[in-house]
Design a protein that fits this description.
By secondary structure, the chain is of the alpha/beta class. It is 44% helix and 12% strand. The N terminus is likely disordered.
Length: 267
């Protein structure tokens, strides 16, 4: 039996694509986030809830990433950054880390032709020195093959930590100032030494699984980012969930320290 939506506009449908189309109809293409960042959380919990190995959850998470990348590119989002592997994730069991590295390598290899087909440019932030040589090799190949693409920029944060990034940037900036290669001490100068120096700051951050923290992700860059914490594990994050999230973003008023009246009056 098909369920009808309740008077508040909520409800389940036998045909979920009808719900997706309804949400898509509400989205305003000119008000989508220019830069969307996602903390892909909940792979392990998804697997544990189904009495499966954690790696199965990560494999399903890769499928979710592919769906979201394709849909963000189709919607016209200019920058998408995915928190794929944190600096702290190296502390996980060795067998899980090794499996994640192999899964990452497989994902990048499989995604590169899709990026070429969809005109997506690949990018990586984080401490690549920590990555295994075989992973760095496929990263280099993807960076080179997609370097001339002019569509969405897909950034993977690999062996990335926000605090580590800030410390690194401070050291580089201090060294350049001491050597006479740079002058000043303002925010704009400092931002040039971040991994994200060629990226705009995120407009919208999604963290799945219902956890309400940013876990050392883009600490400097998220200063004025809108945050959203859906209670759904990453493997279950599909097009409908993405569209719901984007609708939430479009309902927000971004003031950047100004009053609501100033924003509404364009001041």
């Amino acid at each position: 039996m098909v369920k009808s939506p309740n008077p508040c506009g909520e409800g389940d449908f036998l045909f979920p694509e009808l719900t997706i189309r309804a949400v898509m109809h509400k989205l305003k293409r000119d008000k989508l986030p220019h830069h969307l960042a996602i903390i892909m959380d909940g792979n392990g919990r998804w697997a544990q809830e189904r009495l499966l190995r954690r790696i199965v959850g990560h494999q399903k998470g890769v499928e979710a990433a592919t769906r979201v990348v394709d849909e963000c590119s189709r919607q016209g989002i200019a920058f998408l950054t995915l928190f794929a592997f944190s600096a702290e994730n190296w502390l996980r069991p060795k067998t899980e880390v090794q499996a994640l590295m192999q899964l990452l390598k497989k994902y990048i290899k499989a995604e590169t032709p899709r990026m070429m087909q969809n005109n997506v440019r690949f990018n990586v932030i984080g401490n690549r020195d920590d990555l295994p040589p075989d992973v760095n090799l496929v990263v280099d190949e993807a960076l080179a093959r997609t370097s001339a693409n002019t569509g969405m920029v897909l950034t993977l944060a690999l062996s990335y930590g926000g605090r580590q990034e800030i410390v690194r940037a401070a050291r580089l900036m201090a060294a350049d100032i001491a050597a006479g290669k740079a002058t000043g001490d303002d925010e704009a100068l400092f931002a040039r030494y971040l991994y994200t120096s060629d990226l705009p700051e995120p407009d919208f951050l999604i963290r799945t699984s219902g956890e309400m923290r940013i876990s050392n992700f883009l600490l400097w860059q998220l200063a004025y980012t809108e945050l959203y914490f859906p209670d759904v594990n990453w493997p279950d994050f599909d097009k409908e969930q993405l569209h719901k999230a984007l609708e939430v973003y479009q309902s927000r008023e971004r003031r950047f320290g100004r009053t609501s009246g100033q924003v509404q009056n364009g001041k």
